[in-house]
Design a protein that fits this description.
single chain, alpha/beta, Rossmann fold, 2 domains, six-stranded parallel β-sheet, 6 strands, 17% strand, NAD(P)-bd_dom_sf, Short-chain dehydrogenase/reductase SDR, oxidoreductase activity, acting on the CH-OH group of donors, NAD or NADP as acceptor
């Protein structure tokens, strides 16, 4: 179980859900980690992984929409471990809302976290990787937007599909620098965000169904 032995990885959105799962696998295979999240629970996750896998793991509470937070997390990682070999841009949000009712605030939240957050992350992660001459960045996109879509997910679909284009452009730009940049397009997984999304989807379907039945009865 030492495929990642000696590797240093930084994961955003690592407190719960997919990010926690990614951190668990990285720790299982021997990586030293910096777990980054806006949720203070990230330290609980870090301690749990330290206790279970006996790996060197640090945490950082920060916001991916704030580039300075990411740069400070990278600095902390370099001071603690000496390099940054792998970075996973996992942080993201999904606020299920009908398009005609979606506020600018909800739209901008998706853009700030799902697009600008990944943009900021990649810029912060690339600096040490360019200096050391190697690295790997994994961007968490989704099947939503690029391949499929569901009602109420316009902002999420728009921002996640944008990450596919971002990944392709970055991969071409930095391949000759020995830095690999890829994205994953995952489907649904049982995480707190998806559970909340499913509940909201059920409520939305019930609301629309009630309207249809009312119209048919008139």
């Amino acid at each position: 179980m030492d495929k990642l032995s000696g590797k240093i990885a930084l994961i955003t959105g690592a407190a719960v859900g997919l990010g926690e799962g990614i951190a668990q696998v990285y720790a299982k295979y021997g990586a030293k980690l910096c777990l980054f999240d806006l949720d203070p629970h990230v330290e609980v996750t870090a301690q749990k992984l330290r206790d279970h896998y006996h790996q060197d793991i640090i945490s950082f509470i920060g916001d991916v929409s704030n580039r300075q937070d990411l740069e400070e997390a990278v600095t902390l990682t370099l001071e603690k471990f000496g390099s940054l070999d792998i970075a996973c841009c996992n942080a993201g949000i999904c606020r299920l809302t009908p398009f005609d009712q979606m506020s600018d605030q909800i739209r901008d939240q998706h853009i700030d976290v799902n697009i600008k957050g990944v943009w900021n992350s990649c810029q912060a992660f690339l600096k040490p990787m360019l200096k050391q001459g190697y690295g790997s960045i994994v961007i968490a996109s989704s099947v939503t937007g690029d391949l499929v879509a569901d009602a109420g997910e316009v902002a999420y679909a728009m921002t996640k599909s944008a990450l596919v284009g971002l990944t392709k452009a970055l991969a071409v730009e930095y391949a000759h620098k020995n830095i690999r940049i890829n994205c994953t397009q995952l489907g649904y997984a049982q995480t707190p965000m998806v559970e909340k999304w499913l509940l909201n989807l059920i409520l939305l379907i019930q609301k629309n169904l009630s309207k249809i039945l009312l119209q048919q009865s008139q």
